[in-house]
Amino acid sequence: MYRLGEKPYPTQIVQQKLYELISSGRRIDGRAPNQHRPVKVEVDVVQKAEGSAMVSMGGTKVIAGVKFDLGLPYPDTPDKGNLTVNAELLPLASASFEPGPPDERAIELSRFVDRCLRESQALRLDRLALIPGQKVGVVYVDVYVLDYDGNYFAPAVLAATAAIATARVQRHEVRNGVLARVEGEEVPLPVVKLPTAVMMGVLRERVIVDPNALEEAALETSVVMGWGTDDELAAIQKNTPGLLPMEVLEEIVEVSRTIASRLRRTLRESIGDRWSEPKE
Amino acid sequence: MTDFVNDKEFVVPGQPLSDEVNRAGRHTYVQGGKVYSAVSGTARLAGQKIDVIPAKGPYKPREGDRVVGIVVDVKPSYYELDLGWGVLGILRVKQKKGGGTRQALMVGDVIYTAVGFAGVKGVMLRSGKDVVKVQRGILVRMSPARVPRLIVRNRELQETIERETGCKLYVGLNGLIALVGQSSVKEYAAVAAINLVESEPMLEGLKEKVTGLIRRQLWEEVSAV
Amino acid sequence: MTSELVLIKEDGTRIDGRRPDEMRPAHMEAGVLENAEGSAFVQMGKTKIYAAIFGPREAHPRHLAQPHRAIIQCRYHMASFSVTERKSPGMTRREHELSKVIKEALESVVFLEEYPRSVIDVFVEVIQADAGTRTAGLTAASLALADAGIPMADLCAGVAVGKVAGTLVLDLSEDEDKHCEADLPVAMAPSLNSIVLLQLNGRLTKDELKAGLQLAKKGTDLLYDLQKKALQKRFASYGEVPE
Questions:
Q1: Fold exhibited by the domain A4-19+27-272
Q2: Which residue, B115, B218, B114, B214, is CA-closest to B157?
Q3: What is the per-residue pLDDT across C36-79, written as a single tens digit (0 to 9) for each?
């Protein structure tokens, strides 16, 4: 006879304690099950970058920077600009992160952030085709996890969104079919939405928001929900092993939607008039 | 209480077997008040519990299992034996008077012994008179789920092969069989017989097939000379 | 240009004539490779995938070994000729990510504690890609694990649901995948009614997500039946096993 989902004894103890706490409506750090850790968003932290943001979410800290360049479009999207997202789990963030090329977790993070920005159509790449088929704007978003206490997904997406929303890039003009810099003029990137993401942890039939590192290690499974707007999902990633019962999915969707909207509000308050929603 | 399958029915992983959790036997597990199969194989309902006999599968050491291992490391007070399937067996070295050890085994030696203990601490093999060092011969690999075919009914098939070829078989439940014969011809006849035992679908009439195969092989070899 | 492509016709059928909730013809077989411990072939439409299992075997390098359980190593890889434009044969970031989600889906169901200190290697080779390769790859991998006889709580059956021209469709084809508004790969442990793999690329409302998951469930139930049949066929010829 086998046992399903059996973890080593120390993890079992933490799991049981965590479950008892959550069942009584509390968490290890005193939060409620659907309560986010305090979020702080700071933009323009790196002057040499076209856009940048530092986001802290409890004990997790992520920095994102945007660089802008001109380049050739991809052959399959001649009338669109390019977006390149990279993420790294820096070894200074945690004893469990190692130096070297990005491992599968870092690759997963970059691809998730990429999907939040791209699939939500927050960044209008079609407006970055300066000379379609020839010269397009290339947006590089680089995300670094600086300090890790669980859930780097949500702060990474928040930092990336804040950085592209507040970025100011060199203005270019097409004169006689040739691209020219307009000296001294900077323009914002065509960002029309503010995607945010929420990490949801599952322990038996209970659901928690924004797990810290201790909780992450004891969860049965977790899933990250990326919301492009208050009503529209852009990306989902079940990012750890474990069974995710169909029955808890509804709660995950509802709670993550509320929290994602709250994060979006926090972001708007933090960046103030640096970004405004396009009127349509 | 309801069983969802019939005796000797073929089941797959995740297939519900019963809603009586006390019926959970070998190669099953319980979840949400139901018993499920954990492997592909045949369900056995006759006893108190429902067991599933895996059609195939990796070797999992249990106390008392006869095994064949290959020495992969010699340590000051023990040998490490590779039993296959990522299982490393520990064989204690007998201490000589004066504290030194007798380096009787070398890396590459083939050992036939039994599992003394299998658990979280690892797999300890029985030392002493249980240990046979197989000096020469041939090693044959066989699916561990198939090995019992050789030893059921008082080792009927094993003894048939031994009698017909004159080879000695050391049958390891881990899927390794060491055999020693008087000539390569006889040894290869035994290998062919073992392969037949592994590949034939039915156990019924296998003894006659094995006997026929060996006699044919040995006769052909003799007449070819 | 793409705008001329009619993905959903007026009668509600799709570009290849399927209904929105209709799967492509699927074919599965277990035990297709001689030397692997377990193997499987899965075809869904033009998507063709082999999966193979090696082990449990000794973990290399040794420090990867876990004293209390086996680890799974998974490589999802696409052959260079599997796609229209030749793919460079090395591992892309996409392949690294998909290897991770497939591995984690399998870890959700395999009884890893049974084989401490060892590694189970899972290789998924896409020989022709026509959308839905990660889910078909996982379907094949779990079939190969069952073929190897590795104890597991359930099989994993996966399918991609998409939103195409405003309609939710089951089992995306490549034509649809290229122009869809959303791609929702889902894999289930069908008996346990649990999700083992879940991703989303694209825009979807919460109600669409809910409907999409129901659609996926329908698909995975069908695939689960095919998996069972493939195992039955595989082991029918394998014959009787003494206790």
A1: Ribosomal Protein S5; domain 2 (3.30.230)
A2: B214
A3: 999 999 999 999 999 999 989 988 888 889 988 999 999 999 99
Q: Which long-range contacts (CB under 8 A, 24 or more apart) does B129-137 make?
A: B131/B91, B132/B170, B133/B104, B133/B105, B133/B109, B134/B68, B134/B110, B134/B170, B134/B178, B134/B180, B135/B180, B136/B180, B137/B167, B137/B168, B137/B178, B137/B179, B137/B180, B137/B181, B137/B187
Nearest-Cα distance to chain C for B11, in Å, is 8
pLDDT given at position C6: 86
Domain range for B47 is 10-54
pLDDT tens-digit series, residues B115-144: 999 987 789 999 888 899 999 999 999 999
Query: Range of C128's domain?
Result: 27-233
Provide the Cα torsion C207, C208, C210, C215; round to 10°. 150
Interface touch C191/B202, C-beta < 8 Å: no
The pLDDT tens digits for A156-192 are 999 999 999 999 999 999 888 888 999 999 999 999 9
* Mean pLDDT in residue range A253-276: 96
Q: What is the pTM of this model?
A: 0.92
Query: What's the CATH number where B85 sits?
Result: 2.40.50.140
* Shortest distance, CA B87 to any CA of chain C (angstroms): 7
Please judge whether B38 and C152 are an interchain contact, meaning their C-beta atoms are less than 8 angstroms apart. yes
Contacts of A3 in chain B (CB under 8 A): 29
Among B29, B39, B42, select the one facing C149 at the smallest CB separation. B39
Q: What is the ipTM of this complex?
A: 0.91
Neighbouring residues of C130: CB distance < 8 A, sequence distance ≥ 6: C44, C45, C46, C47, C173, C174
Contacts of A2 in chain B (CB under 8 A): 27-29, 38
Q: What is the mean pLDDT of residues A22-37?
A: 94
Given a cut of 50, the residues of chain C with pLDDT beneath it are: 1-2
**CATH number of domain containing B42:** 2.40.50.100
Q: What is the pLDDT of residue A71?
A: 95
> B145 with B130, same domain?
no
> Does residue B214 share a domain with residue B148?
yes
Please count the structural domains in chain B. 3
**Does C127 lie at the interface with A, CB-CB under 8 angstroms?**
no
pLDDT surpasses 90 at A237: yes
Helix (H/G/I), strand (E/B), else coil: C140: helix
Rounded Cα distance between C106 and A238, Å, is 13
Check B40 against C147: CB less than 8 A apart: yes
Chains linked to B by 3 or more Cβ pairs within 8 Å? A, C
Residues of C in contact with B88 (CB under 8 A): 58, 117
Mean pLDDT of the B150-170 span: 94
Flag whether B198 is in a domain. yes
Same domain, B41 and B74: no
C96 touches chain A (CB under 8 A): yes
Cβ separation of C231 and B40 shorter than 8 Å? yes
Break chain A into its structural domains and give their ranges: 4-19+27-272
Residues B142 and B219 in one domain: yes
Q: Is residue C19 part of a domain?
A: no
Same domain flag for B166 and B208:
yes
Between strands B176-180 and B168-171, the pairing is antiparallel
Confidence band for B224, pLDDT divided at 50, 70 and 90: low
We report the CATH number of the domain holding residue C136 as 3.30.230.70
Which chain B residues are within 8 Å of C241, Cβ to Cβ? Answer: 41-42, 53-55, 145-146, 148-149
Mean pLDDT along residues B77-85: 92
Q: How far apart are CA A201 and CA A225, in angstroms?
A: 11
